[in-house]
Specification:
Its cofactor is Mn(2+). It is found in: Golgi apparatus. It is built from 9 helices and 4 strands. By secondary structure, it is mostly helical.
Length: 220
């Protein structure tokens, strides 16, 4: 089957691929499937609100659990990941129920990633560009992977060499990672120029105080 909206087609009708699932059974670890607030319309007839309203994030911030948890920051992390791999199909995400609202997001179903290496779909970054927030730990890691000695493409290339299916990604896809990383950092800089670093960068890198430090503060 081949349709114009699909990124790849069979040759002539078969397509070689792979499927990996390493999650425990739902009986052992129940999961919730949650719609992505930035889900696409998947239709030529209309658009979702976020696609036409640049202030859409203000609405999302008022909706539980995005109003009082790290969930929105995790959504931004997910959008950054999807932009790097070129995945436009993040209609849902999942979470283990055991960890409650502050659990981590499961990035399942990445089948549309690494499609067109020559196209950077900026709309995938809407959670970042509209909300203008990012974890400090995420930003520091992205900045490190933009340094010449730690380029994301080089790190990925070396990592994938260990895979039995190496090289896994073609060279144009690897180079696209570096290009897209610069676009992400550019979006963060634009947010900081507009709102200031204190507002945009969420400090999640603080280390908890040791008991001795806590007692010293109380004594003073």
């Amino acid at each position: 089957m081949c349709k114009t909206e699909y990124a790849v087609c069979g040759s002539p009708h078969l397509l070689e691929g792979s499927l990996s699932a390493f999650l425990p059974s739902l009986n052992l670890a129940p999961r919730l499937s949650i719609p992505n607030p930035w889900i696409r319309s998947y239709s030529f007839d209309g658009k979702e609100e976020w696609e036409v309203n640049p202030h859409y994030c203000n609405t999302v911030r008022e909706i539980y659990p995005y109003s009082n948890s790290n969930r929105l920051l995790n959504i931004v992390d997910m959008a950054i990941f999807d932009f790097l791999i070129g995945n436009m199909d993040r209609h849902h995400y999942e979470m283990f129920t055991k960890f409650g609202d502050d659990g981590f997001l499961l990035h399942l179903d990445n089948a549309r990633g690494f499609g067109r290496h020559s196209h950077d779909e900026i709309s995938i970054l809407a959670p970042l560009s509209q909300c203008c927030i990012i974890k400090r730990s995420t930003l520091l890691r992205l900045q490190l992977l933009a340094e010449p000695e730690y380029l994301l493409s080089d790190v990925m290339r070396e990592s994938l060499l260990q895979d039995p299916l190496a090289p896994v990604l073609t060279e144009p896809h690897l180079l696209a990672l570096d290009r897209r990383l610069q676009l992400i950092l550019g979006a963060v800089r634009k947010c900081i120029d507009t709102f200031g670093e204190a507002t945009v960068v969420a400090n999640d890198t603080r280390q908890p105080q040791s008991p001795a430090e806590h007692r010293a503060k109380l004594d003073t």
